## 1
Amino acid sequence: MNKMDLDKLYNETIWVAQKLFDRGKVSGSSANMSFKYEDKIYITASNTCFGNLTKEDFSIVDLNSNVLNEKKPSKEYPMHLSLYNKHSSVNCVIHTHSTFSTYWACKKTIKDKTLIPSPTPYLEMKVGNLVFVPYADPGSVKLFTNFDDAITDSTSYLLENHGPIVGDKSIFDAFYKLEELEEAAKNAWLVEHF
Ligand SMILES: [Zn+2]
């Protein structure tokens, strides 16, 4: 790939982040997102907002956790690295605290393999097997250990009392997956309550 490809990846990531922010799927500085380019990870830096990202808001990290520029990466970057290192097909990772996915992540009765009820077929079709990760404080070594212990062939995870994290082969595929997860979580919540 060349510089144009890198620019395209930056622009797509910024576009997706903006859309997620504008439509209330993320808020404040709570979400983080990354893409892989030539064995480097470009991840939103600590304390950045999806509503006004620029190329200067990305930290560059190699696959061994070495930070390669002056930007401090999101504190949750080890989970991104775990997904990239586990799945060579993953080229983008998105983590949010989206309302309805997080609602289900806070329910204590979901620690079985059906994390979110699926009244439509799309959760299984688009998100696949959603893997539960037991709670530990955000950014803690314990959370990253729990994530590594839970990691499977799946690229879709729900962090207990925290939120979803998904990976996929492209920025748009990861975006579609995160969106489908949040929509399915919303539908399941509405079906349960009305
Ligand atoms: Zn988080």
## 2
Amino acid sequence: MILPGADRLQGVGEYYFSQKLEQIRLLNIAGRKVINLGIGSPDMLPSPQTLSAAITAIQSDESHGYASYRSTPGLREAIAKWYQSTYDVAVDFEREVLPLLGSKEGILYVSMAFLNPGDKVLIPNPGYPAYASISHLIGAKAIPYNLCENRNWWPDFEALEKSDLSGVKMMWVNYPHMPTGASAAPELFEKLIAFGMRHKILIAHDNPYSLVLNPDPPLSLLSFDPKREISLELNSFSKSFNMAGWRVGMLIAHAEVVNRCLQVKSNVDSGMFLPVQSAAVQALANPQSWHEARNFVYQQRRRLVYRIFDLLKFTYSREQVGLFVWAKAPDEIKDVQAFVDQLLLKAGVFLTPGFIFGTLGARYARCSLCASEEQLKESIQRLENYLEASLS
Ligand SMILES: Cc1ncc(COP(=O)(O)O)c(C=O)c1O
């Protein structure tokens, strides 16, 4: 007999990719050789200096005990310097930085530190699914706010002002936006901070894509709230430094906010493996040329992804930034999820259906740039064959 699970699991399914990757694994065992264009997991190496730092540290007998809950001062200092040089934001490394095991866990810690059961939290539709599921897991109420193509996927502040904001404690925002590839602009961030101040809503900005195919200078929301009164920012090594599997992210916030999150975090995990911290310090020192070379590869791949969507008659904006291309299905395709499943089963090419990002994503699909040109060309070939066969 298996006892029933907790009520909080009701309405939260297993993470879509967790299920889908298992389906792909089984298809591969059956000999299918699926090309996975769904997930944003960088396939290129971190910089050589990053790898050497990890290797050197792992050989030291001082690297294998528990690490400090706040991480080493060296990592926090390197993060603060990187915020200064990348975003022109001054950060006190002693008090305002909390390294995380990836930014996804930061979404949980921030939510646990700020939301009581029943509190409301504004989440983007479409948007990263973890905002809604984590809100649900901790008993908060996720209130979607609409993002539409005709507003460049920015919030409609007039509509928000007119909506019932009672009980709303926090708002998740994420620019460059995933999945739509919409970019940030100073005007947007100014409005967000003003909105947060006016309604006493904490604006939690999730910023993992600011260095990927995003024109200079990348923006931090914190530039627009220098005293960190109403905002915080999560950032990540996953996409900017090709370190998704290493699990390194960060929270930059007011010292009190950092302490509250540490209150949660230090009761959950026991620090980040020291060689990972040493590697992260090196990664932060990657020269601009390293980032440019990475972006050049993504740019070349993106041209092939455009061809994939052209072939499928999906439409998209070429102004998008970040690690994906987001494209709208033609009217003839009635059910995009079913269409994407067909492509997986019949052509062995996996794209992400937009419905997983919210109801306003239902007419869209997302293609990742984390696949080699060779794989993308092979995908084009497979899709051409599939379309030809389905016409005949
Ligand atoms: C918008 C957004 N936020 C956060 C994350 C999580 O990143 P990390 O690997 O740092 O946990 C992702 C990962 O895909 C993402 O797309």
